[in-house]
Amino acid sequence: MPYSLRPKPGAPVATPLDWQELDRADLGPQRYALRNVLRRLAQKDDPWRPIRSHAASAKWARQRLEKHISG
Predict the structure, then answer these.
(1) Is residue 71 over pLDDT 80?
(2) How open is the CA angle 52-6-29, to the nearest 5 degrees?
(3) pLDDT band for position 54 (cuts 50, 70, 90)
(4) How far lies 58's CA from each of 2, 50, 55, 65, 66, in Å?
(5) Region 7-25: what's the mean pLDDT?
(6) Measured at the alpha carbon of residue 27, what is the angle toward residues 19 and 55, in degrees to the nearest 5?
(7) Is 49 helix (H, G, I), strand (E, B) or coil?
(8) Whole-prediction pTM value?
């Protein structure tokens, strides 16, 4: 889940990244944590901000799954 704390020492945060961040030498699972994630978000836009514009209902998939299960 984006922006959720992981149960690890230092309280790392599951943080969405943009493509440019993937080349950072200091990128790792402890890079963003409770102590610095809000500062990061204040300095740049959230890369997942437009995610809601791609939202879709799972109703169609559920109907197909139920049809497949019921035979």
Answers:
(1) no
(2) 90
(3) confident
(4) 20, 19, 9, 11, 12
(5) 90
(6) 40
(7) helix
(8) 0.59
